Amino acid sequence: MADGDPQVKMDISDVEWRLGHQVGGGELWEPCSKTDIRRWVMAMDYVNPLHWDQLFAQGTKFGDIIAPQSIAVALDYGHGNNQACVGRIDGQHMIFGGEEWWWYGTHIRPGDHLSHERIFTGYKLTDTKFAGPTLFQRGDTIHRNQRGDLVAKSCPTVIRYLAKEAEKRGMYASTAGTPRKWAQAELAEIDQIRKDWFMSNREGRSPHFEEVSLGDKLPRRVIGPHSIASFTTEYRAFIFNIWGSFYWNTIPGVKDCWVNQDMGWIEGFSFDEEGAMIDPRLRDGLYLGPSRGHIDDSRASEIGMHRAYGYGATMAAWNTDYLAFWAGHDGMVRHAKSEFRGPAFEGDVTYIEGEVVEKIEKSEWGFPVVRINVVMTNQDGKTVVSSVNEVQLPY
């Protein structure tokens, strides 16, 4: 524990024995609707008409609106981390450390209803400057539609730490205070980059594998400035956050399969599950519970973040959408592995840039793919996300 106080300990005894166990959790009552899809792309600022414009979509090979690949996380429970964030650790908080996704060729369409097979697959206790003893946990979720078709597999990494220790260390204390104020000229430049990106392939043309060369740069994208309004819009696009939208699902034959237990949140960051049966706001994360720090600076300070900040699952979705837009209607993102280096704070903007680094003619998928590195940076050039991805293109 070179960077930490050796007196600070984390009790992970309720985590260790759960390794390899299946996990329960929330499941949505209703199938995916066009409104769900439109709400999601609006929250992700993903201006791809295939996912919101009825007339445009009817003129494509799909014949109707389809969902973006990134929506699978919004049709899951708990921002997709239910399978990784298991076991009680008193005084803890949790943030995302990264996500890995695989997609198997089945598009999600209106009327599809996803089910989820979850398993807790790994953990590592280490020490960080941010919070001292810190636990990294992973888990797999298999996403299938109502026909049993394999849609995707996801594997997030969650970072659990002792909230009071992170608050004491104050690694992000310099972020406290008034978010950056952008001049009108700067906002105009941001808006132009944003427009140039969504006009770069609005018709959904797919580059052929033969056309692509090593070193090719994908069009630059920008998202932001991030705000309380944008964070709130993102939160509400995760369907499980809507009142009464899900039910708890247990795993028959699995002892204590971690359905809706309190993970050990500090005071003010847990839900009132019993009270919410009468007043659903008591498990509404924008009023109560672990997501409060995303939109409340004072609450963010209690968990070591010190300013309102965005969602890890959202950043992974930005990455997927960015690649899928470039790949067009005949392409598909097959694999994406993202590492989160830091949060998107209120007032920041996020720039997204990609580069083709490899062409793989004989891939493990059985068809050619291109490997693309993506980097997301803020206005100061600090990397917030880096990812390695494989994208299928027509050939």
UniProtKB/TrEMBL annotation:
Domain FAS1-like dehydratase stretches: 30-153
CDD domains according to UniProt: R_hydratase_like
Ranges that cross the membrane: none
Domain of life from the UniProt record: Bacteria
Protein name: FAS1-like dehydratase domain-containing protein
The species this protein was found in: Novosphingobium indicum
